[in-house]
């Protein structure tokens, strides 16, 4: 490989990392991202207090509903990222990036990388909320007790404390409120979850479903970003939801929501081999969408 090719490859990697970091920071700093993250975590923690039915397994209702809710809210986050990309293309704010030695394909790939970072931060907040809600759920089949309401209220108070710290940082340090809150909420909930672990073991196998969920949301984000290069936000959202529905119905998309594998009657976790088998479809679809989106950007004038 020639020196020029090596320099070009290094420049492409550096450009991709820079665009991804900037896009991820802007996505995490969006108010809608903070609100969806808060709604997802708070809703997961509140659900065990509203459970009055007996199900096949203690803790399964908040776990399955929490994962399904994370998928729906993650879909909204992906569509929000596509909307920001469409606005940048239509408003011409991305033209400054194209003036520099930055290819449009690298820029689009960086947008997807930043979106994946924001989705990862979102799931990092949902993960401890899932663990806490599952541990504090009613134990009708074992001890017959109701939900551990004090623990759930304390976890909600931890979320409120994170928001209060973010507000204080915004007031006295001029920090961006949404961005600070999105970083503080997972830190606060993870600290509470680790403390809760000493009172009773948590079902850590639940976390094995999150890589599969992130792979599915990455596909959704890739499809949405590719469509946003040529379609308005409303049509992009409709076609993305349709693509997700077809994936879940006909392309084995249900494997990305492994509810049964997490059951205590099964393994209780998603095997690593299963997660590895999900990667080819995710990578191929993401690369195909990036290729089509880059070709569309190359033919368009910004």
Would you kindly provide a written description of the structure presented here, covering whatever features stand out?
The structure is a single chain. The chain is mainly alpha-helical. Helix content is 75%, strand content 0%. It is built from ten helices and no strands. Helix 1 (3-28) packs across helix 5 and helix 2 (31-46) runs antiparallel to helix 3 (60-91). The longest helix has 33 residues, at 104-136. 40% of the residues are buried.
Task: Give the tags.
302 residues, mainly alpha, globular
Oligomer: single chain
Distance between the termini: 34 Å
Radius of gyration: 21 Å
Stretches with pLDDT under 50, minimum 5 residues: none
Largest sheet: none
Strand/helix succession: HHHHHHHHHH
Relative helix content: over 70%
Number of β-strand runs: 0
How does the overall form come out from the CA principal axes? globular
Percentage of residues in strands? under 5%
Mean pLDDT: 89
What is shown here, in short?
75% of the residues lie in helices and 0% in strands. The protein is mainly alpha-helical.
